[in-house]
Predict the structure.
Amino acid sequence: NAGVMQNPRHLVRRRGQEARLRCSPMKGHSHVYWYRQLPEEGLKFMVYLQKENIIDESGMPKERFSAEFPKEGPSILRIQQVVRGDSAAYFCASSPRRGSYEQYFGPGTRLTVT
Amino acid sequence: EDKVVQSPLSLVVHEGDTVTLNCSYEVTNFRSLLWYKQEKKAPTFLFMLTSSGIEKKSGRLSSILDKKELFSILNITATQTGDSAIYLCAGYNTDKLIFGTGTRLQVFP
């Protein structure tokens, strides 16, 4: 049973480019969470999605960031016009249902903006 | 605003020592407190605590929650070099985990 998968594992972008981070939840999980971890900091919640719905995006920056979880395919976190401050590790977690305490984390995507 | 604070930020011990990691929280709609271990990759789940005063144990690790004082501790006895990691505490509200900044534990032989 494959765990949460994220790709790419490492992504380098120049300032102004777009970054697309993908997350495939565990089999049978339809709830996805994105967290960001800045250097030397804990994980910060960004967004919670269910298939085709954004449930909670209270942690998403107001501009340049968007997320989706289509009916088919992985969840995507998109960052437009990246800046150096976007450099971080982005983790995705999945759970089987809303209100489940168990969130299983993927290996993360380390984004470096040069 | 929801807040989870961990202390100490960093801890350096020798193999065989016992350590106590602290976590205080202020989380709206609090449901449970979770502990994770992170070693340069995905956080791995250690414990979930929902009820006050009930200790959970897994080998040399144990944890307990105090919902009156909004506090939890994680104990590691007879530490080993493989315990070196960042230990994250998180409060779970309705839909998301609120993480602390973590305690970085280094265990030297």
Summary: The CA atoms of residues 35 and 47 of chain B lie 5 Å apart. The two ends of chain B are 41 Å apart (CA to CA).
